[in-house]
Amino acid sequence: MRNKVLLIVIDQFRADCLHGALSEQMEMPHLQALMRESTCFNRHYTVTSPCGPSRASLLTGLYAMNHRSIRNGSPLPRQHPTMGSEFRKAGYEPMLFGYTDVSADPHFLHPNDPDLKNYEGLAPGFAEIVRLRLDSNTSWIGNLKTKGYDIPPAYWDLFKPVAADGSNTPAITDPALYTADDSDTAFLTDRTLEELCAREDEDWLSLVTFIRPHPPLVAPAPYNKAIAPSALPAPIRPQNLDHHKMTHPFFAANYVEPSNQHLFIGFDGNQESLSDEDIAELRAVYAGLAMEVDHHVGRILDYLRDSGQYDDTLIVVTADHGEMLGDHYMWGKEAPFEAALHVPLIIRDPHNPQSHGKQVNHFTETIDVTPTLLDWVGEEPNISFNGKSLLPFLRGETPESWREYVFSEVDFGDALKPTRFQEELGLSQFQSNFAVIRDDRFKYVHFNGGLPPLLYDMKADPNELTNLATDPSHTSDLLHYANLMLNHRMSFAHHATSRMSITPTGIQSR
Prior knowledge:
Blueprint: E1 4-10, H1 29-36, E2 39-45, E3 48-49, H2 51-60, H3 64-67, H4 83-89, E4 95-98, E5 127-131, H5 138-146, H6 184-197, E6 205-210, H7 241-247, H8 249-253, H9 276-306, E7 313-319, H10 338-341, E8 342-343, E9 345-348, E10 359-365, H11 369-376, H12 391-394, E11 405-411, H13 420-425, E12 433-439, E13 442-447, E14 454-457, H14 475-491, E15 500-503, E16 506-509
Helix pairs in contact: 6-9
């Protein structure tokens, strides 16, 4: 019996693409079929955002408050064990197909080292088998050139739609300049299958990371029009933008200057200028990109079946974080709402068929993924991890004292240039953050720097439209969740060394 591990991470992939309002209109046959053969964790949440921090947490099993790689480009301190370094202890060579967005620790590198000039670095312990990064897609660009594509001088113009009439003013739903067979998603899948074919008689850990449906929102034909904009539900949002801005200073500050310019190529960053038609078309392109990923995930699953490896492989599909998609008049993922924080998690354990078709409604977090994978191959999770193995749930057991809430945190400041939030709200870099506690009843959002909190009743108001923090009748709830958040931070402060003791017989830990 082989013990292979396939971890697929889809970038900026909302949970409701697979279970929720969006899923009712999107065709995702391969992931939906996998869900029926797996255990699905319906309340799985990222512990931080955006891409770099979320992947640092996923791969270290640590909250961002402990690893402190809190922005794209924030170095991950080298002392933290990663999924890659821990799997090497079990005799695996962890293989990366795509990217990890983990920025290198500068304390161990010369200032001229190229790893200090690209934030999309490689997580320690992984072998970069296929290099495919968003800001520097070197392998894919080389592939396009060999196929005769005329690559634009400006890199980002590669993602500019091509107008059907040949003009310079393409529509949002016009196709990419590359075909579906030559997209970055297709290229990554092709290369992954080539490499896995050479390792069929080995145990392996493969981390496959799809960039899409991450913006820029442009899709190759036919995915650019795979779904009609009118078919998808409208964004969840208050009646008007002015009302949303008045809800909290953070929301108002979001619009004081252009942002999210790479939402689509040609966007000036003025979020308020997007019409309802624009928003519907952008949501449709996002859905098309997600459907393209589903197609290529299906290719990988079919290969595993055809090669006889399917029932030797632990298959895990998840996302680093979600995407607002116009919900609450916001785009991107640095927001406290469900669209940004709630992500899918699918686990198919081939050795435990009793777990197939199950659904788990306990709260789980991205920091649980690495301990789970290590547990499955028989490796003891590192004592530094904040997350816990989910394998007991696959056996029909609920681990003792399992968490009753999820925790997430987001930094919206910058070390080099103050962000629009810092300037508008008068916050320092270290005050520019918020943290979220969400349980069965409420979601509490605590802002640093003296900003007021947010409180949503998730049972009565699952769309998070009414902030109860200003309601005097909920003062006791605010105090309860503020205390809960403080207790959480005190309980989960980095504890790798605090769990150790020097004794006459040497180091002991538990």
